[in-house]
Every structure is written in structure tokens, then in C-alpha cells.
Predict the structure of Metal-dependent transcriptional regulator.
Amino acid sequence: MEKIKLSSSLEDYLEAIYNILLHSEKVRAVDISRELNVSRASVTEALKKLDELDFVNYGRYETLSLTESGKKYAVEVLSKHNHIQDFFEKILGAEHEEACENACKIEHIISENILDRLVAFTEFTKLHPEKYNEFVQYYKERRNQ
Amino acid sequence: MEKIKLSSSLEDYLEAIYNILLHSEKVRAVDISRELNVSRASVTEALKKLDELDFVNYGRYETLSLTESGKKYAVEVLSKHNHIQDFFEKILGAEHEEACENACKIEHIISENILDRLVAFTEFTKLHPEKYNEFVQYYKERRNQ
DNA sequence: AATAATTGTAAGGTAAGCCTAACATTTTGT
DNA sequence: ACAAAATGTTAGGCTTACCTTACAATTATT
């Protein structure tokens, strides 16, 4: 089974749905529209697409939910987001808001491999604040596990 | 005078023109179309827009050139690209190709401030490979100059 | 110089992603 | 229960950025 790559826009919708479900029972189109600053009409349109791709269970005026693959996809995007934001905030020292905004865009386009290296670098940096240049070796060994 | 922010796409066109002019006398639409993997028709369309915005001097069947602001804009984008690529390649140890591809996308969306911090971090890391955590202080001082 | 090949442009089409306005449905308040 | 408010949907439009096809202009070849 091919791994589908969604557009940045649809990834944002999935992510928003997941986030809303973290602190609510239900997701309403209007919640998503507020989260993403788009019209309710745009939300309906996006939900139809996500439903066709089997990432959400959607029906007119019905309760919306994520499918298993929708949940999985959302978690992946969110994980990317958090890793990128963490690097910007904790390593580069950027403000929370700015780190978040940048991560929101980069999460959709960064490659798996570079993200993996970035994560490893952040981890290592946190573990060994005094010397970072053992990182290269660390990364090599980490890859060979 | 407001600083115009071009779309990612138009930034790509400007960048391509600049790059071609680095090793050619003239830029042809077909060169741009090859560099960006788009049709010649799309190039014509983009050139009309860039001409209207006064980033290129363009006229039907005439020699194309960058205006001063076009050149300035292209240099800025290219500089962003190089900084990001440098971090991915030299610090994270990614392959040249992958570093370049990722930089090509991120250059259009990263914020000035985070890029500045990334650049400083890369510089510092190169200067002090043994201890990186003086970076925070370094960055502060660097900002106050 | 005439023809062939290349390059540039115009016209018309497509898809994604957004919008507003109007209408349908559901929920809320009295 | 019923009117008012909120929410969801549809229809129609817009913009960006692509495309293909056909034609125009330029450049290269013989």
C-alpha cells in the first residue's frame, strides 16, 4: 500500500481536527474554521476530500471523526511539528509563537531524513550541552542501531 | 516603501534567472523552463507578473534582465537558501542533494529572525566545535552589536 | 535566401484552495 | 414548542499556477 502524501492544506485540516479532539468530545466545522482561519464552507470542502481519502468519517450534518489512518497521519504531522518547534525554541532560542508559526509551515515540507537528523541533533545537544561535536559520531551510531 | 513579498513560485523564477545569469550572458525562457521544470508558457506568464512588479525588464521577444530590486530580491533568496543548505549539510551532515531540495522549499517560508539565529548557530558551531552552549550568550551579544 | 528547428507567446483549460451569499439544518433560549 | 441563533452546505466566483495546442518570431542550417 502506497503512502499517500496530502497537500499542506489537507495536513493542516487533519492536524486541526486531531488537536480539537484532544480537549473536546466533538469536532465541529466551525471549530476547525476558527483554528485555521478559513470559512466554514472551506472546511466542508476539505472534509469531503479527506473523507474520500478515508482519513475522516464524514457525512452531512453528522459527527465527524478521524479514521485510523487519519489519526496516524495526524500524529505524524504533529510529531514533526513538535520536533521542529522544539529545535527552534529550545536550541535556537526563538519565541514560542514564532517557533510555532515556522514549524507550522516547515512540518509539511521537510524530508524524513533531515528531520531525523534534526531530532537527533536536538536530543544530543540536550544531553551534552558542553560539547556538541561528538554529534556526528553519535548520529552515525544511532543510525546503525 | 513597502517590502513586497513574492509567492514561493515567483521567488523561484527570480532565483532561477539570477542563477542562469551567473554563468551565461543571456537568459532565455527555455533556460528558465528547464531549470524549474515548467513549460515555456508558464515562464512567459511569470515574467509578465515579475515585469509588472518591476523585478525584471521584460518585453515580447526581447532580452530579459533583472532590475535592481529584482537582483536584490534574488540575492536575498539565494542567501537564505545557502544558509539553510549549509546548516543541513555541514551541521546535520545531510547529503548535498537532499540539503539543497529541502532548502529550496524552506527558503520561501522561514522567518527572518529564525534564519538569523540559525545562521549564528551555524557560525558559532563552526568556530567552537568543542562547546556549543556558549551559543546563547554569543547570539545575545551578536544581536546587540 | 529558403527551409528547418528552436524558442516565445497566446488562448483556453484544469485543479487546488480560498471566498461570499443564500439556504438548510440543528441547537439554544424563552 | 417555537422563534432566534448558530452551524453546516451548496452554488458560484476568484486567484494562482500549472498545462497543452497552435501559432509567431527568431535562429540555425544547407
Remarks:
- Chain B touches chain A through 27 residues (CB under 8 Å).
- The CA atoms of residues 81 and 107 of chain B lie 5 Å apart.
- Chain B is about 65% helix and 5% strand.
- Chain B has two domains: 8-72, 76-143.
